[in-house]
């Protein structure tokens, strides 16, 4: 069911039952029901052929059935709030009874007990009274449940973003490896034309050229392997997003997120434990309220008689109050409270452990980011030197001042530095995105 029409329907029903809802709770439910509260919802349809990280995330948010499930559960929670309001309205029921008690000489009930029968058709009405505290606590429980559902939706969106970003970076690294190996192959092929002339001119031996020829063929295999690896990783990325596309398109370079501090108790992952603490307190209060006396007004109107023939002359009404006072329940209240206390201890243990985990991971990623940044600077410098040596070797190759094997070693060093640089840049992006997750 579309979210906007459902939201309008909820507004109408909430307006109709405004007399039964406290003003603050009504406002909270209206704010919780606004479109976009149950994150995440993409602002516009995802592209059919995404190539940026943001586009893949938009496609995943749009196609994910899990996120749609959370949005649906939030709407169900809002309908539960309306249902609880309806339960506090007068309840009207129609009842009909026709009971005949036959009596003979030695058989049958005493007519003083059975009246010979009971016939009637009445409409009864009941209305809870003096239950404002119970009603407000129930509304707070439902509001807490709605906040928990929305936070679970944000947690699912965060997990989805984490897995998709990791796969995007894996595919991006595979594409960079493929592009770099193609560049090496193109350079080898350009040199191959020159080497053939030099071999034919007698400057190099045929056996040396065969080693170079084998390197070209090996690099061609490497290019095809890297191409297949990129296709596989890109296919996995599209599979996770629910995108039907098989074309081999390049990915745009991801923009690294800005470094943010570690989020504290108000983070998405920590908020679930705050909501759990509030839920346990409300459940404690609900147990206490359930043992208070309950009063409700009851009334009925209709026909009722001990004789079927005289029922049309027995029209009447009755009314009064019904009081229910708990006396003894076998210590169920104490056991229920003890159970909630154990749940609070479990919650506190999870929260303390998660806080320590997040702080330890944050410190570890900080150190890893610093080490990766230093390694990137070293690799860029080494790659610059290796490329300069390859350029000098290219000039010396034309004059015969360098052997073909030495030139191949220079190319191999350049390729290794390039691959290491690509992998290290990808690792640095992963660290930055993990730090970004810890800031939410």
UniProtKB/TrEMBL annotation:
* Cellular location(s): Cell outer membrane
For this UniProt record, the keywords arranged alphabetically read as follows: Cell outer membrane, Membrane, Transmembrane, Transmembrane beta strand
User: Which InterPro entries does the UniProt record give?
Assistant: TolC-like
Q: Could you name the domain of life of the organism this protein comes from?
A: Bacteria
**Which SUPFAM superfamilies does the UniProt entry name for this protein?**
Outer membrane efflux proteins (OEP)
Main localization is membrane
Query: This chain belongs to which protein, by name?
Result: Outer membrane protein TolC
Q: Which organism is it from?
A: Hymenobacter psychrophilus
Q: What is the lineage of its organism?
A: Bacteria, Pseudomonadati, Bacteroidota, Cytophagia, Cytophagales
């Amino acid at each position: 069911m579309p979210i906007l029409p459902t939201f309008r329907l909820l507004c109408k029903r909430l307006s109709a039952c405004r007399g039964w809802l406290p003003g603050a709770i009504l406002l909270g439910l209206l704010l919780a029901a606004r479109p976009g509260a149950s994150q995440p919802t993409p602002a516009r349809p995802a592209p059919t052929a995404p190539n940026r990280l943001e586009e893949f995330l938009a496609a995943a948010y749009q196609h994910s059935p899990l996120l749609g499930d959370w949005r649906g559960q939030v709407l169900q929670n809002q309908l539960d709030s309306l249902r609880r309001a309806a339960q506090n309205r007068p309840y009207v029921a129609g009842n009909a009874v026709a009971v005949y008690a036959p009596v003979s000489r030695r058989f049958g009930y005493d007519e003083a007990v059975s009246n010979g029968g009971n016939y009637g058709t009445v409409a009864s009405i009941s209305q809870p009274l003096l239950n404002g505290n119970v009603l407000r606590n129930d509304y707070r429980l439902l509001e807490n449940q709605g906040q928990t559902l929305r936070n679970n939706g944000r947690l699912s969106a965060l997990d989805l973003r984490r897995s998709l970003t990791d796969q995007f970076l894996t595919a991006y690294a595979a594409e960079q490896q493929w592009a770099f190996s193609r560049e090496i192959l193109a350079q080898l092929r350009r040199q191959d034309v020159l080497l053939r002339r030099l071999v034919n001119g007698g400057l190099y031996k045929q056996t040396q050229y065969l080693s170079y020829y084998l390197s070209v063929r090996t690099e061609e295999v490497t290019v095809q392997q890297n191409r297949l690896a990129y296709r596989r990783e890109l296919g996995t990325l599209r599979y996770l997003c629910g995108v039907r596309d098989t074309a081999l398109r390049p990915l745009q370079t991801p923009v690294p997120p800005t470094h943010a501090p570690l989020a504290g108790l108000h983070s998405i992952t920590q908020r679930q434990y705050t909501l759990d603490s509030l839920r346990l307190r409300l459940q404690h209060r609900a147990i206490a309220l359930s043992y208070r006396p309950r009063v409700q007004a009851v009334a009925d109107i209709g026909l009722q008689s001990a004789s079927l023939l005289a029922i049309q002359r027995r029209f009447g009404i009755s009314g009064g109050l019904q009081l229910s006072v708990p006396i003894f329940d076998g210590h169920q209240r104490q056991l229920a409270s003890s159970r909630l206390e154990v749940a609070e201890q479990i919650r506190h243990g999870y929260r303390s452990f998660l806080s320590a985990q997040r702080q330890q991971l944050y410190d570890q990623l900080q150190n890893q980011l610093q080490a990766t940044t230093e390694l990137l600077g070293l690799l860029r410098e080494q790659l610059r030197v290796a490329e300069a040596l390859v350029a000098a070797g290219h000039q010396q190759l034309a004059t015969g001042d360098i052997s073909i094997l030495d030139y191949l070693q220079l190319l191999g060093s350049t390729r290794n530095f390039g691959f290491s640089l690509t992998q290290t840049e990808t690792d640095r992006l992963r660290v930055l995105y993990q730090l970004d997750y810890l800031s939410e």
